[in-house]
Write a structure and sequence with these properties.
Elements (H helix, E strand, L loop, with lengths): L5 H10 L2 H8 L3 H27 L8 H34 L3 H22 L2 H6 L8 H23 L4
Helix pairs in contact: 1-4, 2-4, 3-4, 3-7, 5-7
């Protein structure tokens, strides 16, 4: 923990709040929230990686527009599962997590993954979804996709390491 810092004070307050206490003390609440978080993350990771692999050239015969129309709602739904459950998991152990190196790395990686996604959607996204099947993605698009996969795998690893750091 980062003693005396505002982050440490916030962590202590959250962990000792009625919500943080309930999550830690309930036999079923924390494991249920964690399970929903993991299911949501599996959907999020899977939906993103399917698109990234297509952008990298796998199954170029599949048009990206229809693929995105199918996958994007899954990605958004998974965010509706992952974000609130992640906040609840944080509230239960905020005092420990604010100083946990793996947690801090995971949060940083999430920030960079979001920036990568925003840059892709602000840049080459439109041209890519309008391209016909068989189209080879531009180099910048392939870079966004490769970086996305690397970031999301790193997020998964950092998240798993939180319990061991």
């Amino acid at each position: 923990m980062i003693d005396g810092s505002p982050a440490a004070a916030l962590g202590e307050a959250l962990a000792h709040s009625p919500l943080g206490t309930a999550l830690r003390e309930s036999v079923w609440l924390y494991p249920t929230v964690e399970t929903i978080h993991i299911v949501g993350f599996a959907l999020l990771f899977g939906s993103i990686v399917v698109v990234d692999l297509r952008l990298l050239g796998l199954r170029r015969n599949v048009a990206l527009g229809p693929l995105m129309s199918f996958v994007l709602p899954i990605t958004l739904l998974s965010l509706l599962l992952v974000v609130p459950t992640g906040l609840l998991l944080f509230a239960a152990h905020a005092n420990d997590l604010v100083g946990n190196r793996a947690f801090v790395i995971k949060m940083g990686l999430l920030f960079f993954a979001a920036i990568n996604a925003l840059m892709f959607h602000a840049g080459p996204y439109r041209a890519e979804i309008e391209a016909p099947p068989g189209h080879r993605s531009r180099g910048s698009t392939r870079l966004f996709a490769a970086l996305s996969i690397a970031l999301w795998i790193s997020i998964l690893v950092a998240g798993r390491w939180i319990a061991y750091v």
